[in-house]
Amino acid sequence: MSFFGSIPDPLAGTFSNNNSQQQQWGSQGTPPILPLPEPFDAQTVTPPLSQSSQPGVGLFQTPPIGSQATLFSQASGMNFSFNKFDLNAPVRSATTVFGGPEQPAGFGSPNPAFLASPATSNVSVEAQLEDLMDDDEDSNLSRTESSLSEYKSVPPTPAGIEQYRIMSREQSKLAPHTMKMNLPPPTQQELNDNAAALQRLQQVAGLRESLTSQWNEVHVQHGQLLSAHITTPGFFQANMDAFENLRGQLLNLQQNINEGARTLFEIILHVLADAPGLALVRSELAELELLGAKVDLYLQELRQLSANPGGFPVCVIRVAQQPLPIVMFKGKEIDDTYILQVLLGSQCRLDSISAVRASIVSDNPNFKSPDELENNAADIDTPTMKASMHGIKINVSTRMDTTYFKFHAQIARGNERRHIESDRSFPFIVITNESQWADAAGRLMLLDAFGLENQVQWPQFANTLHSHYLNATSQKPEHAERPIYPYEFKFIHERWFGNKPIVTRAEAHEFWKFFGACLSTIRFKRYILRFWIGGLIFGFIDKSHCSALLDQQGIGAFLIRFSESSPGYFALAHNSGDPVQSIQHSLVRSEDIGSNKNLAEFLRERDQFQLLLYLKNQAEGIVGRAEKDTIFTEFYSKKERPKPAKGYVIL
Questions:
Q1: Residue 589 and residue 576: Cα distance in Å, rounded?
Q2: How far is CA 193 from the centre of its chain?
Q3: Calpha distance 569→585 (Å, rounded)
């Protein structure tokens, strides 16, 4: 984790205000409102930063839309919680591919612009940015097809293919085995913002510990007063000051909890996250939300004491743990778990409590809640008062409507029975087939990022996107193997949002057409998730950067990336050795890979691809190289590769 690994354990209860004065919570009386730092001022932040290639702080877990809880009520805008070559064309004869033994075509400059330091690069920043924004796959089509006519006109022979392989191996001996991408460093403003976020996160961690300690004291005092009220007639009227003081302590706790939550949301609004940071901030928010729910419950119990002293005991059911907004499949159990928790007032004594059951609600007034739910009931564990619901199955599609769970239970005391109900869960959509996934996931992501707003700040959108990406690729933020790295976010921000500080809903919707299609391919194409997590597929980088890497390699070197102009499709960039256009970009068609043939099998049958460039160290941009058969052997089918007829090559 980039900026959290060195966080010291804060001194619980001790904080500095703007005048550097210390305030310590006392064990008696009403607690003060604890001061937090002023809003971000990058110029005044001085805490040292740990040196890392991936700066960031974390994400959030926001309350469900429509929640009655007051904890996050002031968190504005936060709603929950991130040239086409024909590859089937025959390979050109090796005798026409290479320029000559002294100077093999295709090596290019030994120090291409993207890999060069600023001092040695002869390509202007403006030219690089112009190239970055220019998705020229279509504009290069005519140029590449003109060279392809000769490419197709010389059918290769088996001997030519073997010569190609030999030449590839020989040239690879002269090329570097590893390369380092010249990644853009963080700006001073980014460093300052991250330092400020770290400082504020430490403050919130200390605040939360102090609030927990204070809550424990209030909890004891609350129980003693209410117990005396029940057993001693007239105690309430005789001790009104004590009850009013208790209420004041609870209100101050509530206000401090809300201040801590707002501070965490400010971090999300202003600072781009790294994956471990997502988990850390989300964890802090979960702790504050639980503490806030307990405080609200005790305040409710005090209100009942004065309004209806003999009323039914106060208790609530809450969603303690749940997945982020997700897409479910009709008739398929979900992998996620919902944990429900019953909170009891200090004087709540129940004779029985039923199993917790889930039902579905929707914002669509025409939506009919299905009765065909499975695995939607769980017993309460009495010692912890929690229930765990795993593998819920919904046997009906929601027709792209956002829907929610509500959880219910029946409680009883003597002859009295009551129905308790949770707030709504985070939203979900139930679909019937994989082709609907990207659209459904996009709706949930946009709802999470924008709510009812039409624009948000870039860090808020990026953090939401990152969270949804990790969820879609089945990665836990605490130990994500393939997060979205800062240099990839920089490319996304530049390429799709023009580096603007504000992201509109329309821009995000247009971007999701690309990003959602890529995620769908990663999730559902055979073996692709393993390739992606393992760094065999390059992430979100420009074509020119791919060419710069391949310029340092010999013929047959290639890499895999996502096409920008054909969302969800793979593009293969490889060093062909062609004297006219050495680095060629090819599009893998959807029919080329599917249930009968995976990407590894497809590459196995294309002899122009010999040495794979892959992300050896993704965080630092270290690129390695290996023979494709070494990398992909375990993914090849057991069938022996067909041998070509004389004078032909297998397509």
A1: 20
A2: 21
A3: 13
The three-class DSSP label of residue 570 is strand
- The type of residue at 539 is G
Round to whole Å and give the CA distance between 375 and 380: 15
> Mind giving me the DSSP string for 5-21?
TTPPPP-TTEEE-TT--
In contact, 71 and 297? CB cutoff 8 Å:
no
Quickly list H helices, 416-476: 437-450, 458-472
- Phi, psi (5° rounding) for residue 550? -70, -25
Strand-pair category, 326-329 with 557-562: unpaired
Residue that is written with structure tokens 């025409």 in the block:
366
Cα gap 614→391, rounded to integer Å = 36
Q: Give alpha helix (H) positions in 483-624.
A: 486-497, 505-524, 528-533, 543-550, 599-604
How far apart CA 321 and CA 378 sit, in angstroms, is: 14
Closest CA to 390 of 367, 358, 428: 358
Are the CB atoms for 114 and 181 separated by under 8 Å?
yes
Could you tell me which of 535, 532, 502 has the C-alpha nearest to residue 518?
532
Give per-10-residue mean pLDDT for the chain (651 aa). Answer: 35 31 36 43 34 33 32 38 35 28 30 30 36 38 31 42 84 89 86 88 92 95 90 88 94 95 91 89 93 95 79 87 94 94 88 93 81 90 94 90 94 88 95 95 96 94 96 93 93 95 97 96 93 92 86 93 91 88 88 83 91 93 93 84 59 52
198 CB neighbour count, 10 Å cutoff: 25
The count of residues in the chain is: 651
- Rounded CA separation 326/473 (Å): 12
